[in-house]
């Protein structure tokens, strides 16, 4: 088998697996992101890179993301708009945690 044939075979297999990967991802991805952000916050509090006031702000913002998640899942469905809103809220939260951890106010 030459290189081009191998590349085409790998590309074809990847395209076949794409729907399965998308279905696996459509579960509770936001819970994983929430856990990751919680762990980052806990690490920042433990190593001193988050001050008490910063920690309070981060926790308030996390509560906001949790409220958005609860509202989006209240009807049992997650539309693409709700998913986009959750994804953007989680992105903002993640960036906020990063900025607070690296602003040299703590440690």
Summary, kept brief:
It is built from 4 helices and no strands.
Explain this structure.
This protein is mainly α and 107 residues long. The chain has one domain (27-101). It is 80% helix and 0% strand. It contains four helices and no strands. It has helices spanning 3-25, 29-47, 52-73, 80-101.
Secondary-structure blueprint:
Elements: H1 3-25, H2 29-47, H3 52-73, H4 80-101
Helix pairs in contact: 2-3, 2-4, 3-4
Question: Features of this protein?
Answer:
single chain; 107 residues; mainly alpha
Strand content: under 5%
Instruction: Count the DSSP helices.
Output: 4
The structural class is mainly alpha
Distance from first to last alpha carbon: 57 Å
- What is the arithmetic mean of pLDDT? 79
């Amino acid at each position: 088998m030459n290189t081009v044939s191998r590349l085409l075979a790998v590309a074809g297999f990847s395209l076949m697996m794409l729907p399965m990967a998308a279905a696996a991802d459509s579960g509770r991805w936001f819970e994983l992101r929430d856990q990751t952000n919680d762990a980052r916050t806990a690490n920042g509090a433990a190593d001193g890179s988050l001050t008490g006031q910063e920690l309070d702000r981060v926790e308030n913002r996390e509560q906001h993301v949790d409220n958005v998640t609860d509202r989006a899942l209240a009807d049992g469905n997650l539309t693409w708009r709700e998913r986009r809103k959750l994804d953007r809220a989680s992105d903002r939260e993640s960036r906020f945690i990063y900025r607070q951890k690296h602003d040299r106010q703590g440690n």
